[in-house]
Amino acid sequence: MLANLLLAWFAQHARALPWRQSRDPYQILVSEVMLQQTQVDRVLPKYAAFLATFPNLHALANAPTAEVIRAWAGLGYNRRAVNLQRAAQQVMAQYDGQFPRNVAELRSLPGIGPYTAGAIACFAFEQDVVFMDTNIRRVLQRALVGPDLQVAPPERQLLEQSATLLPSGQGWAWNQALMELGALICTARNPSCAQCPIQRVCRAYSTATPPALPRPLRRVAEGQREAYHGSRRWLRGRIIDALREQPQLSLSQLGPRLKPDYSAADEAWLRDLVVGLERDGLVAMQEDRVGLP
DNA sequence: AAGGCGGGGTG
DNA sequence: CACCCAGCCTT
């Protein structure tokens, strides 16, 4: 019953997202990696541009890594760009350019974990496999367990239930629909239970507690708003951004772009950041100059 | 089992 | 501000 309700709703309300129109494993791979911890709305414009620049596996595998990192601007988690290209290169080298179809082999590619391997097997090759992401987890927990997300069943258990509920031959629609419901209706905050197609069979709905009262207004602490600004993560992002514009920079050129009062005494600090980026394959250093690889 | 990794949007 | 977002990798 749950599956029937969910799939009927999905057939009516699914967004026409570009990666849903494709079964090309390369295009699916690109979309899934971009969507790791990144919202659909932010991915959409980058996705089209990326595929225009790197239309197929061959183009991506053979591109300068610097170009791939540039195409990743605005998406965050820049290591994903490096791993995506390495995955493309590995498919070319180890699989003769033909994507492996099973989850275990997909899982061996860099940057492809349990979720993405399942998603490619399902969304590109239309296999009846189950996997977990933040939307599927929340939807299944609410529907099958109840409203309290604090008492989380083991991941394995939710996956088993998903596999049991999955209508044979419709894995693609089942997983897409779970994720779509989580994105549009069964949201983390303020879910739209009134519009929910599965409310009749949802444990969280039948035992739903009234919506929490609005939080008391916090005092706006203007002074201490920034914890992220100036952090290591932020600095790494600034370095990559600078190198997207300027192919090569010396440390003494780079430093002032991160820290207005940069001096020679800061070089060890800056070098540590650069070494970290180098280890991630995001920059290359030669002599005293830094650049995208 | 934790922490690191980007960046922007939302309540 | 705290939280959220189609996770993955290293330690």
UniProtKB/TrEMBL annotation:
It catalyses: Hydrolyzes free adenine bases from 7,8-dihydro-8-oxoguanine:adenine mismatched double-stranded DNA, leaving an apurinic site. Its EC number is 3.2.2.31. The keyword Hydrolase applies. SUPFAM superfamilies: DNA-glycosylase. Its cofactor is [4Fe-4S] cluster. Coiled coil: none annotated. Keywords: 4Fe-4S, DNA damage, DNA repair, Glycosidase, Hydrolase, Iron, Iron-sulfur, Metal-binding. It is an enzyme of class 3 (hydrolase). One of its GO terms (molecular function) is oxidized purine DNA binding. Residues 34-184 form the HhH-GPD domain. Adenine glycosylase active on G-A mispairs. MutY also corrects error-prone DNA synthesis past GO lesions which are due to the oxidatively damaged form of guanine: 7,8-dihydro-8-oxoguanine (8-oxo-dGTP). This is Adenine DNA glycosylase.
